Amino acid sequence: MATERDWLDEGLAVLAEQGIPSVTIEVLCERLGLTKGSFYHHFRGMAAYRAALLEHFETRFTTEFIDIAESGAGASAGTRMERLLDLVTGKGDTAGLETAVRAWAQQDPLARAVQERVDRRRIDYLGTLWRRRGGEEPETMARLLYLILVGAGHLVPSLTMSELREVYELAVRPYAREERS
């Protein structure tokens, strides 16, 4: 039997590949080879599922990324930024998923609220890391770094993860400074 996480992971995959209109009970059941009864075992309906899907997106691609970047006592801000970059450029089709969630947020108030919260948290975290590195204008630099991710998701054809990594490294290179204690 599929777990709630299996349903949510599959929903994120469908969302990234085909957009929110394709995230239906029928599509999910077909892709997972399960019945509607299995779906309803975990979720009260599509509205509850979509709310859980947004929460899952936020947890997997924001909270968990920050937690992993912050792991390891005494790690420098530069090391934490490098961990974050590894996560952002190493997780499959994150650009497609990011674009799909943003498109969803244009049509749905709940998705918009989650996207706003995710954006604010990510920008705040990048600003904190930049400040710890001794960088100037942390809020502006955080927005710049984040805009690279958002913009990269809209290129056709999309950047490869290694190309995205090169852009990030180029953006921070001139500003590398000694970290503050």
Concise synopsis of the structure shown:
This is TetR/AcrR family transcriptional regulator. It contains 9 helices and no strands. The chain is an all-alpha fold and 181 residues long.
How would the blueprint of this fold be written?
Blueprint: H1 4-18, H2 25-32, H3 36-42, H4 46-70, H5 77-88, H6 94-105, H7 109-132, H8 138-152, H9 161-172
Helix pairs in contact: 1-2, 1-4, 1-6, 4-5, 4-7, 5-7, 6-7, 7-8, 8-9
**Biggest beta sheet summary:** none
Secondary-structure element series:
HHHHHHHHH
Structural class: mainly alpha
CATH topology of the domain at 54-175: Tetracycline Repressor, domain 2
Helix content: over 70%
Rg calc: 18 Å
CATH superfamily of the domain at 54-175: Tetracycline Repressor, domain 2
Q: Which CATH class of the domain at 54-175 is shown? A: Mainly Alpha
Mean pLDDT: 91
Low-confidence stretches: none
Number of helices: 9
Describe, in plain words, how this protein is organized in 3D.
The chain is mainly alpha-helical. It has a domain at 54-175: Tetracycline Repressor, domain 2 (Orthogonal Bundle). 72% of the residues lie in helices and 0% in strands. It has 9 helices and no strands. It has helices at 4-18, 25-32, 36-42, 46-70, 77-88, 94-105, 109-132, 138-152, 161-172. α4 (46-70) packs parallel to α7, α5 (77-88) runs antiparallel to α7 and α8 runs antiparallel to α9. The protein is elongated, with a radius of gyration of 18 Å. The relative contact order is 0.11.
